[in-house]
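One such shown below:
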Amino acid sequence: MTKTILTLSNGETITTSAPEEQIIGHITNSQGMLTKAFVVIGDVHIATAHIVKIESIGQSEDRYRPEPIEQEVEEAAPEQVEQANESSDQHQFELLEKEIREAMQTRDIFLLDTLIHDDLVFVNHEGMYLTKEMDLEAHRTLAVRFTEVSCKDLQIKPTKDGAVTISRIHLMGQAGDEKIDGDFIYTRVWQLMGDQYQIIAGHCTKL
């Protein structure tokens, strides 16, 4: 899996799973000028002006599209091919769900920016409608800080162009002055957008 390393002017480095082009797009506008005062990964505030190098390491792979089935599987009986495809898709969305949980816990807004569609509609456990930018801003400003985002159960329901995932997540952390510690049910709609899967809609319920 490709990792992107951000080197800061003080010599520190920060690693994210977001691709290099996503990071550059997140911190610049169409003219290439910096647009964000700072970004946050984990507990580290990064002034964009202090990022001195962005580089990718590891082999590039398309981790958002369905994984190809090997030739010998394609030549197998139709029911075997169908089972192999279902297994491949299942694994694909398990990895995507793992990435979104890790991004939530580490406040990796670059990876969140990659996994969430620009037109996201998300309804939280209080019935509030949240946009992608509202979600990113909460992590960017540390208004929401998760110390644990762990999955207890995950169900994946394939759709024509993606999947609906239903997961039971244990959250610990802080939202403003409110302590977070409990189980939540997350429903996410993953849809193939161009060449990658992104979350287009979601809902969260507190148990």
